[in-house]
Amino acid sequence: MSRERLNKRVRELKPSGIRRFFELIIGRDDVISLGVGEPDFPVPWRIREEMIYSLEKGITSYTSNYGLLELREAIAEYYRRFEVDVSEENVLITTGVSEGIDLALRAVVNPGDTVIVPEPVYVSYSPLAYLTGAGVVTVSTCPGFKITYEDLVKYKDRNVKVLMLNYPNNPTGVSYTRKELEELADAVLELDCLVISDEIYAELSYSFKHVSIASLNGMEDRTIILNGFSKGFAMTGMRVGYAIAPDDILEGMVKIHQYSMLCAPVTAQVGALEALRNGEDELEMMRAEYIRRRNFFIRRLREMFDVVMPDGAFYAFPDVSSTGLSGMEFAERLLMEKNVAVVPGDAFGECGANHVRCAYAVSMEKLRLAVDRMKEFVESL
Ligand code: PLP
């Protein structure tokens, strides 16, 4: 074929900075990895049992495009704890939050629209927004990692269609209080745009109770909430998440989902239902352990670096510039010299270049060892 075979925007996509770095440690058992954004707990046993039992009963067919009705009802009920009052008709079960991000963007963005992505942030937002034909505007939130009203209203004349928000945030762990979200909601109203609100770490909020921006005045009709089971319930490989959206947007998302995915995996949907019905104790146990690790880890990191206290999730994002190294140099040398893997901060946006992301989703024992080695490394510089 003489023409370019790949789509122009696909050609322009850069490989994920996380993936590139992790190819270096595949098969190396000697490395302590604080790199992977994945719970180190197994899927709670009662959830696994429910999935196994469903297979024994032969529940293996497609579900409705929207997902299992009982699960959608349970999610609508569950989100009332975050003061979002919706019915199951506004819930779509997706193949992880990853699919939800893609669907939400494709359902609402026209080529030429602007999508605002505050950085540092989860790696998929800008590439997926870019593939819709959008103009992607990344806005630095360094050093405090929170976007503000003033940051946003500057883009009033830029045909902004979507603001991407993620709180608690990957990679920084910071989240927004109700008051901060109220200010963001004012900006959203001024920009007259929509919000894609990725709340995948909502259950892992430690500093204060999670507030959904959709619960604020005037925001329910402008917000697409995304959440899932990968983080809170440690179900990463099950691939199940959900979107809660206003009627017209949910219908748009289903239009795509019915052709591209048909439905989320049924076994995972059964497990998700069990998680919501009976998983609270396990969730509480994991949350308590993350808090214990966070408090220990941040205290030790602060002996070496400036680090913002994470409000939730399981990440710390220290600024390593006091060592004279960039985040990339620090991560490479820490791996080579001390066998500890962290992710260079620029994987999450340029403004993260002086940082590294460390996931404390490992046992206390490994965390202690990793931070001791990090300290030896810093002292050797
Ligand atoms: N959104 C954020 C902020 C994440 O950190 C991740 C995974 O790391 C995802 C979405 C993807 O989640 P899922 O496993 O539900 O596709």
Task: Give a written overview of the molecule.
This protein is an alpha/beta fold and 381 residues long. The chain folds into two domains: 8-43 and 281-379, Aspartate Aminotransferase, domain 1, CATH 3.90.1150; 60-278, Type I PLP-dependent aspartate aminotransferase-like (Major domain) (Aspartate Aminotransferase, domain 2, 3-Layer(aba) Sandwich), CATH 3.40.640.10. The chain contains 13 helices and twelve strands. The protein has helices at 8-12, 17-22, 45-56, 69-78, 96-108, 125-131, 149-153, 178-191, 247-260, 266-278, 280-301, 327-338, 364-379, and strands spanning 32-33, 91-94, 114-119, 135-140, 160-166, 194-198, 223-228, 241-244, 315-316, 340-341, 343-344, 356-359. The strands form three sheets. It has a seven-stranded mixed β-sheet, sandwiched between helices. A three-stranded antiparallel β-sheet has the order 9-12-11. A two-stranded parallel ribbon has the order 1-10. α6 links the parallel β3 and β4. α3 crosses α10 (266-278), α4 runs parallel beside α10 (266-278) and α11 runs parallel beside α13. The longest helix has 22 residues, at 280-301. The site of pyridoxal-5'-phosphate has 13 residues, from α5.
